[in-house]
Amino acid sequence: MKQIVFLDRATIAPQIALPRPAFAHDWVEYERTAANQTSERLRNARIAITNKVRMGAAELAAAPYLELIAVAATGYDCVDLTACTARGVAVCNIRGYSVNTVPEHVMALLLGLRRGIVSYAEAVRQGEWQRSGQFCFFKTPIHDLSGATLGIVGKGGIGQRVAALGKAFGMEVIYAARPGTDATDGRVPFEEFCERVDVISLHCPLTPETRGIIGDAAFAHMKRRPIVINTARGGLIDLPALERALSNGVISGAGIDVADREPPPPDDILMTLANDPRVIVTPHIAWASDEAQTALSNQLITVIEAFEAGQPINLLTPKDE
């Protein structure tokens, strides 16, 4: 009987039911797995499920029976695909489940920042409405989305869904070409993109080429004091550069749902930024609506069953790295 080990079940909310594969198996799950626990827990595993637990050459060497790593997410940077190929271990991920939840979170961050919702709500809690002595009070400027330019980095399913929501609000939408590349497929050269946008939303993978794509060079071209939103991967934004851009008034705000280290340590620059009223930081939950988590959980089991049936889906290979 094949042993299936879920290394970090706590990455799916407790209220989300996780089905079981429709073949004989021994299911073992752990809420969390530290790096020094992975090898022992995979000692007899045929199938490993991981969301963020690292799976590299050392972990594979300690798992002699492993056949499949099922990544309970779309992002798979926790898995060394080259090492898996060398060992003959298949790797599959989850796709398409977050096409509604992430774009909706983007719009929530955008509305919260453009309309000052967090700032005003906190002011009400602090009694400023009563102290104002009139029917309303003004703490921070409020801007409509209609007529603003939404710039998107990444033209995949999530990026296109964000574009559709932006257009529904009356926004003009443009897509960025990567820095140093030709502007094809209707994309705008990156420097021009930075000059034109009122909002930037990031929806591209984190690669050596995209790490720090929003940094000092990009900020130097921003003429309209845009809002920067990142629900993709933390490393896409150079945070010290972001802090400088905020301090110098180059941008008007930021909405951040992801970090290079999660959770960030207390002294991380992201935690400093989180105390800035122009910044909204959420704990990597853009993907995490109950509906999306249910779709992820169902697809996870489908991936495992398809592999067991000899018809694997969502396979990843080293060329995807």
CATH fold-level assignment of the largest domain: Rossmann fold
Indicate the percent of residues in helices.
Answer: 25-40%
Please report the number of helical segments.
12
CATH class of the largest domain: Alpha Beta
Radius of gyration using CA atoms only: 22 Å
- The ordered string of helix (H) and strand (E) elements is EEHEHEHEHHHEHEHEHEHEHEH
Brief sketch in words of this structure:
By secondary structure, the chain is α/β, with parallel strands linked by helices. It has helices at 38-41, 57-61, 81-87, 101-114, 117-125, 128-132, 157-168, 190-196, 216-219, 239-247, 269-274, 290-308, and strands at 2-6, 25-29, 47-50, 68-71, 90-92, 149-153, 172-175, 199-202, 227-230, 253-256, 279-281. The protein has two domains: 2-97 and 290-320, 3-Layer(aba) Sandwich (Rossmann fold), CATH 3.40.50.720; 101-281, Rossmann fold.
Describe the fold and architecture.
The protein has 321 residues and is of the alpha/beta class. The chain has two domains: 2-97 and 290-320, 3-Layer(aba) Sandwich (Rossmann fold), CATH 3.40.50; 101-281, NAD(P)-binding Rossmann-like Domain (Rossmann fold, 3-Layer(aba) Sandwich), CATH 3.40.50.720. The chain has twelve helices and eleven strands. The strands form two sheets. The protein has a six-stranded parallel sheet with strand order 7-6-8-9-10-11, sandwiched between helices. Strands 2-1-3-4-5 form a five-stranded parallel sheet, with helices on both faces. Helix 4 crosses helix 7 (157-168). The protein is globular, with a radius of gyration of 22 Å. The model has no long low-confidence stretch (mean pLDDT 96).
